[in-house]
């Protein structure tokens, strides 16, 4: 049963293994401030004792955003085992993003503001179809996604930007790939492999 309750009545779940840190948490707070109606459409799931089963970070972000009330969905009659199962399954990321569609049909700045990790630079923002080949053939292209810490991500992004301004970058083999970040990363890896020999 969905209902709106005082935020002070909802108890965060200390056993929830999923957390959001730093910039992602700030983005979640900002999105709740700008679009609080989202919480009614996707309420926090709680048990009969008002302990969060799904939406621990949304509760924390709602408090940070200064909300006095939140929407909850009460899950009744679950065993302790089912509650634990729900907590994990609610936080498992099933499926994958269709990166070509996101790159070509969605605004990368908005996606980043909404909390999706989008690797972008000025070239990506100015050229929305950077990932497309002129004839539309993408059969030899592959999207690879890695999870990195903020520190790792910053180091890689800086290295990619730096190598794009070198003489070597002008002659990098693209294999038909028009994505400048991908080609710069390939050159970095190619140089690393060359150093190992």
Description:
The chain has 197 residues and is of the alpha+beta class. The protein has helices spanning 22-34, 38-41, 56-64, 80-91, 99-105, 108-113, 122-126, 150-163, 180-196, and strands at residues 2-6, 44-46, 52-54, 69-74. The protein is elongated, with a radius of gyration of 22 Å. 15% of the residues are buried.
**What does the overall shape look like?**
elongated
Oligomer, anyone? single chain
Which blocks of ≥5 consecutive residues have pLDDT under 50?
A: 120-135
Q: How many domains, as an integer?
A: 2
Number of DSSP strand runs: 4
Strand order of the largest sheet: 1-4-2-3
| Helix percent band | 40-55%
Structural class: alpha+beta
Helix count equals 9
Q: Distance between the terminal alpha carbons, to the nearest Å?
A: 64 Å
CA radius of gyration: 22 Å
How do the helices and strands follow one another from N- to C-terminus?
EHHEEHEHHHHHH
List the helices and strands and how they pair.
Blueprint: E1 2-6, H1 22-34, H2 38-41, E2 44-46, E3 52-54, H3 56-64, E4 69-74, H4 80-91, H5 99-105, H6 108-113, H7 122-126, H8 150-163, H9 180-196
Parallel strand pairs: 2-4
Antiparallel strand pairs: 1-4, 2-3
Could you write a compact summary of the structure shown?
This protein has 197 residues and is α+β, with helices and mostly antiparallel strands. The chain has helices spanning 22-34, 38-41, 56-64, 80-91, 99-105, 108-113, 122-126, 150-163, 180-196; strands spanning 2-6, 44-46, 52-54, 69-74. The chain is elongated and about 65 Å long.
